[in-house]
Design a protein that fits this description.
This protein has about 400 residues and is α+β, with helices and mostly antiparallel strands. It has helices spanning about 30-70, 80-85, 90-115, 150, 295-305, 325-330, 345-350, 370-375; strands at about 120-125, 130-135, 145, 155-160, 165-175, 180-185, 205-210, 220-235, 240-250, 260-265, 270-275, 285-290, 310, 315-320, 335-340, 355-360, 365, 385-390, 395-400, 405. The strands form four sheets. A six-stranded antiparallel beta barrel has the order 1-2-3-6-5-4. Strands 7-8-9-12-11-10 form a six-stranded antiparallel beta barrel. Strands 14, 15, 16, 17, 18 and 19 form a six-stranded antiparallel β-sheet that branches.
Length: about 400
């Protein structure tokens, strides 16, 4: 029989035992049966929990493996997340792409700035018959600078601009000994280029060439400054002269680029393209006349329609090491050996001879023909200069009065 305890709320589940029966029989109460069923459920639940714990442990192990495979990818336990971070090679490729994009942006900016300023020149009234080249606008009122050898063949021609305008031009001035010339178009409203300073260039610096090679107007090529301080010979009449401090570049230059712009990364014109070494053997060897204080003075004179004036001694020569005694006495290591003297020249009148070794002019050491050229500026024309030299081992001083160089 079963008894209940009405005094205890909740009936049979509120007590774990009941009083013994009157006949002394053991009575299994309802609470005991419930306890047994609860125990069985607990055992079942315990097995489920163990199974769940085992699965969780495996998941945790997988989590650690994912971390290892992902290279510690944010600790989220996902291989995909680790791969999303990317290996170092992907990062390097991204950086390289960014660098190439930056390079392209520089070239693009320079091209956009300079293309409106660079014209294609058709020399002579017959269009292309007498030659072609490029020119760079340097003022709004029609002045353009170009190469002397481009416009030497005719006093005028036509300048074609990127906006479609074709304007007639006249040659304002030519200086063959620097290979520079200035022309002026009849129209106005040009987009002048900004001129820089080639003396600040460094080897390896990015440069951009803009011109009209082989008649292909508005062409752009890019490269680096391959070398500085190069020189090439220019001739006018019976006189020859070295054009110095020439820029060498590997930017692609072709016939028709002459007179065009060579610019730095800020779109400042630092050179006028003038020559390609070759043909056939000089691919990647382009030369440009530098834009610096000396050439700006030349361009200014040509814009004014004036000749570029230079002092002249009338000698030819080359660098030569000094004899030991002369080197000790002077502290110099080299001088300018005279190899030829023009008859009737200022040097001939002063008694300078071939094989003389010039040490200084007005106390300025001279060891190369280029140094002599730089010294013989217009302000020395007609003014006596003192020349120190060595002849047959003896130190001599000569006074020479330079005359004006007639390059016509």
């Amino acid at each position: 029989m079963t008894t209940t305890s009405p005094d205890i709320p909740g009936g049979p589940f509120a007590s774990s035992s009941a009083p013994p029966a009157a006949n002394g029989e053991s009575v299994v109460d309802h609470d005991g049966a419930a306890s047994e069923r609860a125990t069985e459920r607990a055992r079942a639940n315990n097995g489920t929990e163990q199974t769940t714990d085992h699965a969780n442990n495996r998941a945790a192990g997988g989590h650690g493996l994912s971390d290892q495979l992902g290279g510690g990818a944010g600790g989220d336990g996902s291989e995909a997340a680790g791969r999303a971070k990317g290996p170092t090679t992907a990062t390097g490729a991204t950086a390289e792409a960014a660098a190439l994009d930056a390079y392209s942006q520089v070239v693009t900016r320079v091209a956009e700035a300079l293309l409106p300023s660079v014209a294609s020149l058709r020399v002579g009234a017959d269009g292309w018959a007498k030659g072609s080249g490029s020119a760079v606008a340097i003022s709004e009122d029609g002045f353009l600078v170009t190469s002397a050898h481009v416009v030497t063949g005719a006093p005028g021609g036509t300048a074609a601009f990127g906006d479609g305008r074709e304007l007639p031009y006249e040659v304002t001035g030519i200086d063959r000994l620097s290979d520079l010339a200035v022309v002026r178009v009849s129209g106005a409203g040009l987009a002048p280029a900004r001129l820089g300073d080639a003396d600040r260039l460094r080897v390896g610096q990015l440069v951009v060439a803009v011109g009209n090679p082989l008649g292909f107007a508005g062409s752009v090529s890019a490269g680096v400054v391959s070398a500085l301080g190069r020189s090439f010979a220019a001739q006018s009449g019976r006189h020859a002269r070295l054009v110095e401090n020439v820029i060498q570049t590997d930017a692609a230059l072709h016939p028709g680029n002459s007179g065009g712009a060579l610019a730095d990364s800020t779109a400042a014109v630092i050179g006028i393209n003038t020559a390609v070494v070759g043909p056939g053997i000089g691919q990647g060897l382009g030369l440009a006349v530098p834009i610096n204080a000396v050439t700006l003075g030349i361009i200014g004179s040509l814009m004014a329609g004036q000749r570029v004036r230079r002092a002249w001694l009338g000698i030819g020569g080359g660098s030569r090491p000094l004899p030991p005694r002369a080197a000790r006495d002077t502290g110099l290591t080299a001088g300018l050996e005279v190899t030829s003297v023009v008859a009737g020249s200022p040097a001939a009148r002063a008694g300078i001879r071939p094989e003389d070794l010039i040490l200084t002019i007005d106390d300025v050491p001279i060891a190369a023909i280029g140094e002599l050229q730089r010294l013989l500026s217009a302000d020395r024309i007609g003014r006596p200069v003192r020349v120190a030299l060595v002849r047959s081992g003896q130190r001599l001083d000569k006074e020479v009065v330079p005359s004006e160089l007639d390059d016509r």
